[in-house]
Structure formats: structure tokens, C-alpha cells
Design brief:
This is ABC transporter ATP-binding protein. One of its GO terms (molecular function) is ATP binding. InterPro entries: AAA+_ATPase (IPR003593), ABC_transporter-like_ATP-bd (IPR003439), ABC_transporter_ATP-binding (IPR050763), P-loop_NTPase (IPR027417). Belongs to the ABC transporter superfamily. It is a single chain. Helix content is 36%, strand content 29%. The protein is of the alpha/beta class. It folds into two domains: 227 residues, 3-Layer(aba) Sandwich (Rossmann fold), CATH 3.40.50.300; 77 residues, Alpha-Beta Plaits. Strands 5-6-7-3-8-9 form a six-stranded mixed β-sheet, sandwiched between helices. Strands 11-12-10-13 form a four-stranded antiparallel β-sheet.
Length: 310
């Protein structure tokens, strides 16, 4: 698997009113071919500074960035040809141009000839389901349509690495799902994708790996499936008769692990660590009837909240 992005010990320090602000504090990570990474973190964590440093829009205080073998600082034009970008809050397209003209324009800006650029523009317009929008200035399109055009423009020069900053922000469900499915397809074109989003359900749908940054430092860099297993909680579901409520409380009063008692549903959720503990729980709760046992796999939002809580 070919490495497309390498960030090593990246630091960015800002000076503001005699104060030193460490926006990014020595982070390192990589993005490989055919890999989608969700870059997550609260506002002010350092995500935007990192993304702009990779693009060459922000000059790091120290550290190394390598994009497909090139340095954004020393070889910005070569990096631009390898990199496709959507920046949240920035104008990523030209309002007066339609979808074909936008894609053609950005392809030519990256050194592709006019004939080839036009061919690419029509191909992407069809793939993005925007053929019926040809001839309409993008300023007159919906937010979702404009984001599709921005995605087309970022792909115009056939980049190897994509940086997508909040690509589904503010979109309705249909437009958001289209963008999600399209991003997933790009993975199989051997592109490397770094996506930032506050929509954790979107990150969970597309990402192979999760990067979480907080206060300028990477605190998590793990495969999503491995991360879920680490935070997986084994949960024993036990039903009981309403009259047994006081008995249940008494029996569990000395139990060392966490449990949740739902009197309305006549149900207990008890968290356990291993199979041996199941027998201990059953012994404690005799003669209550056990209805089912199952394992609860947390979603990314639950994991994120748990990590932030630490």
C-alpha cells in the first residue's frame, strides 16, 4: 500500500497579543493509498491548521509534510497537482460558472489541456448526476448541488490525495448520502482521503481509520473496527417481576461493576468483563429470570464522548 501523505512532528505556534498559542503540538500520521481517514476533534483542536499546513496555506513552525513525494513548502505547485481539496467556509467553486465550466477551469489550472479538461468535466458531471444542471450558474444551485460541483472541481485534475473539510455540512439527507457513497467509491480508485467532520455518523460510514486530535495533539490513531472492539461493552440483559424490584436492588448493592435498572421495562443492564463473571452475576441474582445475553458495540459518537470524557 503506497504512502500518499506523511506528517511528522508537525508544530504550529501563533503569537497573539504577547501570548503564545500552540495550535498543533508535534503530531505525526500517514494516509495511504485506498484508505479513508476521519480526522476528528472539537473546535479549536488543530484540525484546520493541520489541513491548511498540508495544503501549503499555513507555514508550520516545525516538522515535515510530504505529499506524494513533495514538500508543500518547497514544491507547492507539484503538491497542488497531487492534491484535491474542499475547504469548509471557503469558496471552492466559481459562482458564475456552471458545473462543466467549473470542473474544466480547475482541471486546466492544474495543467490539464483544454480538450482533456472538457472530457473530464463531462465525465464527472455525469457521475455526479448533474447533467440536468449544465448551463445553470452554480450560484443558483442548491447547497447540496454546489457541494457536488465542489467535489467535481476537487477531482478535476485526477489527484491522488483528497482533503475534504466538512464535505456534508449543511446538506439534506439525500445530498449527504450521495456525497458519502461517492467518497466511498473513490477509495477503490486507490485515492487516499482525509476527511474532517463533526458529523460522527458520517465519519463512521466512510472511515477505515480514526484520528482524534485534541488541544493540538493526536490522542487516537486507530483502525475503526479495532477502536470499536476496545470500547465494546459486554452487556447482560435480565428481566424480572415488578414485585422483585427491591430484591434486585439489594442483590446488586454489593456488585462491583456498573448496572442500569429500568423499572418501567422490568429490565436490568449489567456490564461484565468476561464469561466467568456471567456465572457470578447469575448466582448473585438467583432466582431472577434471565431473558437474554448480548454484546453491545458502541457507535463512534459513544466512543468519541467516552474519549473526550477522559
Amino acid at each position: 500500500m503506497r504512502n500518499l501523505l506523511s506528517v511528522k512532528n508537525l508544530k504550529k505556534v501563533y503569537k497573539y497579543k504577547n501570548k503564545t498559542i500552540e495550535a498543533v503540538r508535534g503530531i505525526s500520521f500517514e494516509v495511504n493509498q485506498g484508505e479513508i481517514i476521519a480526522f476528528l476533534g472539537p473546535n479549536g483542536a488543530g484540525k484546520t491548521t493541520t489541513i491548511k499546513s498540508i495544503c501549503g496555506l499555513v507555514l508550520p513552525t516545525s516538522g515535515e509534510i510530504n505529499v506524494c513525494g513533495y514538500s508543500p513548502k518547497k514544491e507547492p505547485h507539484k503538491v497542488a497537482k497531487k492534491l484535491g481539496v474542499i475547504l469548509e467556509g471557503n469558496r471552492n467553486i466559481l459562482w458564475k460558472l456552471d458545473v462543466v465550466e467549473n470542473i474544466e477551469y480547475f482541471a486546466m489550472r492544474r495543467g490539464i489541456g483544454k480538450k482533456e479538461a472538457k472530457k473530464i468535466a463531462y465525465e464527472l458531471t455525469e457521475k455526479l448526476n448533474l447533467k440536468d444542471k449544465i448551463g445553470i450558474p452554480t450560484e443558483r444551485l442548491s447547497r447540496g448541488m454546489q457541494q457536488k460541483v465542489a467535489l467535481g472541481a476537487s477531482l478535476a485534475h485526477k489527484p491522488q490525495l483528497l482533503l475534504l473539510d466538512e464535505p456534508t455540512l449543511g446538506l439534506d439527507y439525500e445530498a449527504s448520502q450521495f456525497i458519502v457513497e461517492y467518497i466511498k467509491k473513490l477509495k477503490y480508485e486507490n485515492k487516499g482521503i482525509l476527511i474532517t467532520t463533526h458529523q460522527l455518523d458520517i465519519a463512521e460510514k466512510v472511515a477505515d481509520r480514526i484520528l482524534i486530535i485534541d488541544k493540538g495533539k493526536i490522542i487516537i490513531d486507530k483502525n475503526l473496527d479495532i477502536l470499536k472492539k476496545e470500547f465494546q461493552k459486554k452487556k447482560l440483559m435480565i428481566s424480572f417481576e415488578h414485585n422483585d424490584l427491591d430484591l434486585v436492588k439489594n442483590k446488586l448493592s454489593m456488585y462491583k461493576n456498573k448496572y442500569v435498572l429500568n423499572a418501567d421495562k422490568k429490565e436490568i443492564e449489567i456490564y461484565f468483563n468476561d464469561s466467568i463473571e456471567i456465572y457470578e452475576i447469575i448466582e448473585i441474582l438467583k432466582p431472577l429470570k434471565i431473558s437474554k445475553i448480548h454484546t453491545h458495540t458502541p457507535n463512534l459518537e459513544e466512543i468519541f464522548i467516552s474519549i473526550r470524557g477522559r
